[in-house]
Amino acid sequence: MEKQRKAPRGTRKRDVPLTKDGIYAMALQLIDADGVEALTMRKLATELDANPMSLYHHVPNKDAVLHGVAERVGSQFRAREWEDLPWQDRLRQLALDFRKLSHRHPKLMAYSFARADYVQPEDPFWQGLIDILSAAEVPASEIPRVAASLCAVFTGLLVSELTGALQRWTTLPPAPAGPGGEDAPAPAKDVIDAMFNCALDATIVGLESHIARTREEP
């Protein structure tokens, strides 16, 4: 009896229907493994064991997939859980959540940070930041500018960490050289954690000072 031949992968009928959430989940896996540039609609369809054309019934193109993936990752922010905390602690937790997501999905975040539109008004991160600044009693007219400045600070910190720049800067003179005059070793993770928290401390203190000045102004 002749053995029945299987259709090539990606052309067989799926046992489970495609969904947008399933497409975004697989796309995120592929991005985490190989980066955004390596993601194609054909490769995504192959990994989903689907006909490439069937993807277009759910998402029109790769940009739409990336937007959906970004929303999926952004939904992990837990800003609503901290509403009873002082605004300083809420801001710290928001920044630390941002950092955790960057470490969890470094290739996606590095790609996103290079785009001016990576933060959208409806993003949980942005909404959480606006709520925190409101709780801190930043004047409403200044909230957009302060929020934009904080985004730049957090992004700059994370970019320098993801690229390894932050780690390298700690080894520059006057950092002590190792035995025999070789370059100082890269800092341990707890050192980088402490540096990130130091930058957060400075940011929070600076914001407290800014708020105090605005209250003193006539």
Provide a descriptive summary of the structure in words.
The protein has 218 residues and is an all-alpha fold. It has helices spanning 20-34, 41-47, 52-55, 62-74, 87-104, 106-113, 124-135, 143-162, 165-169, 189-216. The longest helix is centred in the C-terminal third of the chain and has 28 residues, at 189-216.
Strand-helix topology:
Elements: H1 20-34, H2 41-47, H3 52-55, H4 62-74, H5 87-104, H6 106-113, H7 124-135, H8 143-162, H9 165-169, H10 189-216
Helix pairs in contact: 1-4, 5-6, 5-7, 7-8, 8-10
Compute the gyration radius: what is it? 23 Å
| Shape label | flat
- Compute the separation of the termini in Å: 93 Å
* Largest sheet features: none
**Proportion of helical residues:** 55-70%
Parts with pLDDT < 50 across at least 5 consecutive residues: none
Could you spell the SSE succession in H and E letters? HHHHHHHHHH
SS content category? mainly alpha
How many helices in DSSP terms? 10
Average pLDDT, all residues: 88
Brief overview:
This protein is mainly alpha-helical and 218 residues long. The protein has helices spanning 20-34, 41-47, 52-55, 62-74, 87-104, 106-113, 124-135, 143-162, 165-169, 189-216. 20% of the residues are buried.
Search tags:
single chain, 218 residues, mainly alpha, 10 helices, DNA-binding transcription factor activity, transcription regulation
